[in-house]
C-alpha cells in the first residue's frame, strides 16, 4: 500500500529578513540604496544628513534621507517594508528590482518614513526592527494617514540607531567619496552622452561636519591632457604623472548580440589623481579617514545602471600592475547582481566570458595604440632628461673634486692625492713602476676582489719560489679597527692615520680581534735619509708590520709634497 503526500515548501520569514539585512555588510550600503530609491522616484534633489546627538544613554546615530520624488502610496510603502515585493521589477529604467535594498534599514533601532503622493501623506513607523528579528519576530509597521495639498510630494526617511550606532565610516569625506564612486549619483553615464540626470543635486552632511555640502551629479573624471611635448615643457621630470587620455568604446557581445556594453578608459598619471581625488594616500599628505592607495581603488570596474559594482583588474593585466594606470568602467545592463548589489556573480558565466573577451580586446588595442606609445615616449623623455641631469651633476661634482684635489710633481711624473683606497694603490703602483727602490718590497700579484690587496716579496735576489711571500694591505686611512687579519701581513700602505681614532702606543685590532700596538718612531737626528716610521707591534711576535703612511713617507723621504692646484692649473 502506497501513499502520495503533497508538500509546499515554506519560508522562514524572520530568518530571511535577518539574513538579507545582514548581507549588506558595508554600513555605506544604506547610502547607495537611499540614492537608488530617490532615482527610481524620479527625484531631482536628494538630502543626506548624518548626526549623532547626545541623549541620556549616550550618542545615538540619526540618519535623515529626503528626496523630492513622486513619493509613495500605500502599495509603495508596503513594498518599502516588504521583502522581495518590488514594484519596480519590470520597469526598464529602474534600479531597484529585487525588493531587498531597503532591508538594510532594518539594522537599526527605529525606522520612520514620511511620504506624500496624490494629496496623501503616509507616516510609517517601525520600532526596534533589529531587536525583534533577533528575537524571532517580524517587526510590525504602524501607518498614519493625512490629507495634504495635492501638489505635495516626496519622501523623508529617518533611521535611528543604525548599525549599532557605529559612525566611524560616516565621516563627510568618506561618504562623499562613496557617493561619487559607488552610487547612482556618481554614475558614469555622462561619459556616454547621457545627460538625463545632469541637473540633479545632492546635499550631504556627514557626522563630523556642521554645514552641508552640495554635490553635483556624476562621477568625477579629470580633463584630458595628453600633448607629450607640452606636458614635458610644463612639468619636465614630473610630466608622466600629469598625462591624461580618455578612450570610449561601445559594442555588443559576440555570442549575445542583443547585449550591449559601453566602456570608458581613462589613462591617468598619479598627479592627475591627486589633483581631483583628496582620498588618495600619498607621501607628505594627511589623507582623510577612509583614504586608500591607488592600487586599492583604481583599475577596471564592471557597472550596471552606470554604477560601479565590482572590480575586475585581472581582465586588464598582462605583467602585473597595468591596472594602476587606468580609471575605467564597463557598463552592461544584462549583468545580474547579488542581493546586496556587491557582485555580478549572478550573471551567466557565458555572458561574463564574452564581456571579458571584449574588455581584453579593448585593453590590447589600447596598449598597442599611439596613445600608449605616447605615454611610453613621455617616460623615455623623462628618463633621458634624468640621465642628462645626473651626468651634468656628476660632471660638475667631479670637476669640483678635481679642482679641490691636491697634486705633486716628482721627477717628471704628475701625482694626485688619493681620495679612496684604490687611489692609494694606484699611487704606489705609479711610483713603484718608475722608482723600484722607493719601497722595500716587490709586488708579485694583486687582487681587487676583496679590496686592493697585493702579494709581495722582500727586495732581494732569491727566486720567488724560494722566497717568503706576504700580503700588503691598502687603506685610505688607518684606524683602531682593521678589517683583515694580521696573519701573513708584511706591510700596510695608507694615505694617512686617523689620529682622532688612534695614537702612539694605542691598540689596533684585526678581524680576529687580535691586538697590536701602533709604534711611531721619529727619524734619528742628523739622518738626512730618515723618515718617521710606523709599526704595528706585537711583543709576542718577531714580525713587526710596517705601516707606510704615504702622506708623510713621501714628504720626509723624497720631498714629495701635495699642494692645492692653482686656479689656472686645470679648470
- CATH top level assignment of the largest domain: Alpha Beta
Question: How much is the radius of gyration in Å?
Answer: 41 Å
The termini sit apart by: 117 Å
Note the main sheet. 8 strands, mixed
Q: How many domains make up the 3D coordinates?
A: 3
Description:
With 571 residues, this protein is an alpha+beta fold. The chain has 3 domains: 204 residues, Histidine kinase-like ATPase, C-terminal domain (Heat Shock Protein 90, 2-Layer Sandwich); 147 residues, Ribosomal Protein S5, domain 2; 158 residues, no CATH class. It has 12 helices and 26 strands. It has an 8-stranded mixed sheet, with helices on one face. An 8-stranded mixed sheet has the order 18-19-20-21-25-24-23-22. Strands 11-12-15-13-14 form a 5-stranded mixed sheet. The longest helix has 35 residues. The termini are far apart. The C terminus is likely disordered.
Task: Describe the secondary structure blueprint for this structure.
Blueprint: H1 13-23, H2 29-40, E1 45-51, E2 54-55, E3 58-59, E4 62-67, H3 74-81, E5 110-117, E6 120-127, H4 129-134, E7 142-147, E8 154-160, H5 172-182, E9 201-205, E10 213-216, H6 228-235, E11 244-252, E12 260-268, H7 270-276, H8 294-297, E13 299-304, E14 307-311, E15 326-331, H9 349-367, H10 370-404, E16 406-410, E17 413-416, H11 421-434, E18 441-447, E19 453-458, E20 469-478, E21 489-497, E22 507-509, E23 515-521, E24 533-537, E25 545-549, H12 550-558, E26 563-564
Parallel strand pairs: 1-9, 13-15, 20-21, 21-25
Antiparallel strand pairs: 1-4, 2-3, 4-8, 5-6, 5-8, 6-7, 9-10, 11-12, 12-15, 13-14, 16-17, 16-26, 18-19, 19-20, 22-23, 23-24, 24-25
Amino acid at each position: 500500500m502506497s501513499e502520495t503526500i503533497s508538500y509546499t515548501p515554506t519560508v522562514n520569514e524572520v530568518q530571511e529578513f535577518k539574513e538579507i539585512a545582514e548581507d549588506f555588510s558595508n554600513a555605506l550600503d544604506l547610502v547607495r540604496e537611499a540614492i537608488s530609491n530617490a532615482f527610481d522616484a524620479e527625484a531631482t534633489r536628494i538630502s543626506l544628513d548624518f548626526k549623532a546627538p547626545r541623549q541620556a544613554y549616550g550618542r545615538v546615530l540619526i540618519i535623515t534621507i529626503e528626496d523630492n520624488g513622486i513619493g509613495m502610496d500605500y502599495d509603495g510603502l508596503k513594498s518599502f517594508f516588504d521583502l522581495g515585493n518590488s514594484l519596480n521589477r519590470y520597469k526598464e529604467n529602474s534600479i531597484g528590482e529585487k525588493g531587498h535594498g531597503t532591508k538594510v534599514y532594518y539594522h537599526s533601532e527605529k525606522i520612520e518614513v514620511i511620504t506624500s503622493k496624490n494629496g496623501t501623506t503616509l507616516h510609517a513607523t517601525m520600532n526596534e526592527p533589529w531587536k525583534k528579528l533577533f528575537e524571532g519576530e517580524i517587526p510590525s509597521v504602524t501607518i498614519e494617514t493625512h490629507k495634504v495639498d495635492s501638489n505635495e510630494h516626496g519622501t523623508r526617511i529617518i533611521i535611528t540607531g543604525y548599525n549599532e550606532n557605529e559612525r566611524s565610516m560616516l565621516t563627510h569625506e568618506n561618504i562623499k567619496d562613496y557617493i561619487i564612486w559607488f552610487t547612482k549619483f556618481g554614475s558614469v553615464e555622462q561619459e556616454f552622452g547621457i545627460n538625463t540626470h545632469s541637473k540633479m543635486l545632492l546635499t550631504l552632511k556627514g557626522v563630523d561636519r556642521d554645514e552641508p555640502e552640495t554635490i553635483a551629479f556624476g562621477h568625477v573624471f579629470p580633463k584630458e591632457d595628453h600633448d607629450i611635448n607640452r606636458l614635458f615643457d610644463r612639468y619636465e621630470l614630473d610630466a608622466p604623472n600629469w598625462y591624461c587620455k580618455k578612450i570610449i568604446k561601445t559594442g555588443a557581445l559576440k555570442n549575445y548580440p542583443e547585449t550591449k556594453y559601453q566602456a570608458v578608459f581613462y589613462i591617468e598619471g598619479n598627479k592627475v589623481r591627486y589633483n581631483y581625488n583628496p582620498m588618495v594616500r600619498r607621501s607628505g599628505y594627511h589623507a582623510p579617514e577612509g583614504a586608500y592607495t591607488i592600487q586599492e581603488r583604481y583599475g577596471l570596474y564592471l557597472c550596471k545602471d552606470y554604477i560601479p559594482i565590482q572590480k575586475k583588474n585581472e581582465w586588464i593585466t598582462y605583467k602585473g600592475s597595468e591596472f594602476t594606470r587606468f580609471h575605467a568602467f564597463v557598463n552592461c545592463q544584462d549583468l545580474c547582481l547579488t542581493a546586496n548589489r556587491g557582485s555580478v556573480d549572478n550573471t551567466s558565466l557565458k555572458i561574463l566570458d564574452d564581456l571579458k573577451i571584449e574588455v581584453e580586446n579593448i585593453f590590447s588595442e589600447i596598449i598597442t595604440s599611439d596613445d600608449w606609445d605616447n605615454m611610453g615616449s613621455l617616460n623615455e623623455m623623462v628618463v633621458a632628461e634624468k640621465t642628462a641631469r645626473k651626468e651634468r651633476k656628476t660632471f660638475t661634482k667631479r670637476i669640483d673634486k678635481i679642482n679641490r684635489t691636491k697634486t705633486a710633481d716628482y721627477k717628471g711624473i704628475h701625482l694626485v692625492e688619493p681620495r679612496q683606497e684604490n687611489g692609494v694603490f694606484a699611487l704606489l703602483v705609479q711610483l713603484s713602476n718608475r722608482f723600484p727602490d722607493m719601497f722595500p718590497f716587490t709586488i708579485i700579484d694583486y687582487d681587487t676582489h676583496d679590496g686592493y690587496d697585493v702579494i709581495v716579496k722582500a727586495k732581494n735576489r732569491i727566486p720567488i719560489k724560494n722566497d717568503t711571500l706576504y700580503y700588503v694591505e691598502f687603506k685610505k686611512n688607518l684606524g683602531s679597527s682593521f678589517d683583515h687579519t694580521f696573519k701573513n701581513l708584511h706591510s700596510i700602505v695608507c694615505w694617512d692615520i686617523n689620529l682622532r681614532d688612534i695614537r702612539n702606543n694605542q691598540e689596533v685590532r684585526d678581524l680576529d680581534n687580535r691586538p697590536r700596538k701602533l709604534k711611531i718612531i721619529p727619524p734619528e737626528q742628523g739622518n738626512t735619509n730618515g723618515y718617521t716610521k710606523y709599526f704595528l707591534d706585537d711583543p709576542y711576535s718577531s714580525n713587526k708590520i710596517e705601516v707606510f703612511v704615504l702622506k708623510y713617507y713621501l714628504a720626509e723621504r723624497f720631498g714629495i709634497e701635495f699642494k692645492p692646484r692653482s686656479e689656472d692649473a686645470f679648470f
